[in-house]
Amino acid sequence: xxxxxxxxxxxxxxTQYLSDTLKVNMTxxxxxxxxxxxxxxxxxxxxxxxxxxxxxxxxxxxxxxITFFEGMLENNNTLTQLDLSWIKIDVxxxxxxxKILKNNTSLISL
Length: 110
What we know:
four-stranded parallel beta sheet; 11% strand
């Protein structure tokens, strides 16, 4: 099952609602949230939901406003593809992202 929501102006509140659903949905394999308005507040909800979700394999977050990666993939061992293209990542965020990726064993495409 795939869900493509690119370009829908989804912001923090919409991401929070989607994240609540992701925590209990165990059939969704692909989620595309590219070209939305997801910021750090929204990403916190999303990354928390990934800890509970065991079915999602592909997550597309390209062209959003995310610079906060704390907690991303911390307890998730099922996500294999993550698209963060066209996201402005500063030095501190890239260090945190590198630390996260160092400990992740499931991601094969970034």
